[in-house]
Amino acid sequence: MDKDRKLKRYRRKDYSEVVEFPVEIVGRDGVVRHYDFEESVRLYLRRLSFAPMRFTDDDLVAAEQGHCKARIEQLRRSFFHLHGWSTDDGGRGPEAARPDHAGELTAFLLRIFRDPGRVDVRFSPLDRVAPGDLWYLQRDGVAGGLLLYAFAFEAHDDGTTVAYHALLRDLRTSEGTQGDAERLIGFHQSGDCAFVLTGRGEDVAALASAVHGAPEGADEPSPWDEVVEFVRRGDAMAALLRCRSLLELQPWHRDAYALGAALAMGLQRPSDAEDLAFVGTRYLPDDALLHHYLGLSRYGQGRLVEADAALSRALTLAPELTVARSLAVILATDRGRLLRALRTGRLPEGVGPDGLDEVAHQALLGSLGRAVRFFAVIAACALVCSGAAVVLGWKVLVPLGAVLMVGGVGITALARRYRDNRARHLHEDVQVALQRVRRTRSAQRGR
After folding, report:
1. I want to staple 298 with a disulfide (CB 3.0 to 4.6 A). Which of 150, 303, 333, 441 is the partner?
2. pLDDT of 77-87, one tens digit each?
């Protein structure tokens, strides 16, 4: 009955209307939240991927996935309708070749060109052998043109993904070259598509001049400096928002992903932390700290199996990352796997601690180890007394009761100490997080 009611609710949904942004979305907790275009699409992409974990019934999984796909299509269609380029000239552009991705492309170009309203561009198709489409992009009133690479990711098609990352690697290696070679301007990747915008040296310089104006002076603070200043002032929300805006311009900025995730966790917004950490691990798949924050954010949402996988990846990449090892200990303990928790807490042979979280980690591990050992001793004593009671009679019940009473008091005290140490790890100070970001950045460069 409950299944039929849920399926009817899915079938009654209407996806035909044009929605305004920011869009209101009611969460599973009943709270109404506001999302901009890109945040709302990422939200439904997450729901799409987690549908098999949320439901055990195949019909409900299919209904949830169909709902998410239809909602993503509606969001993208609406955004293109509100901000997309004119198609009155009859030309065939990306909106005709891939209409389901036109909204994503519109958001990407708005961010690049800093256009407040509609994107004012024209497209001409170009031939390309490699996977993906290639377009020549021109802006009204601006001389020259740019190249737009568009990729559509299909299920079980690794060739397009490989071509996309190979193009980015080639463009990044040419960043330091001189002359009029092709330069990377920006790129955007979503769950099912990606775009890369490039241009020749003079066209890139003209775009930078038109968009950004005169170059900043040497003494002007960088966007990252502004993030750090907000952290110093204790304004975590402003620092988080600045991290997000920084990543729109510099999607490879590792520190902004890591600190942004830490700030979001401090603000008790684990879904936002997961969003930042997840995107960061897509750009920087070998960064252990980003995998740690991915695990922490999923732990904060109660998704322990996924958190365990992310932490295992972090410790594989950097076994000395103590903060990830501590969280893995907490996770194993919460799941009742005490022996695994103790094994996980010990550093592998030949690996030294990172130095930043060593004292806190040893306190956590020590309190857990003492609680486990004390419980084992009390359990053994209770077992001996129980066996003796069978042979000697009820008189042995007096020492058995005393053992259990002492054991209960001791276990309670040790458990409280462990919980205190656990709380310190799960509610880290943002200044410590900033220090960790800087230190692990240096360690990664030294690998």
Report:
1. 303
2. 999 999 998 76
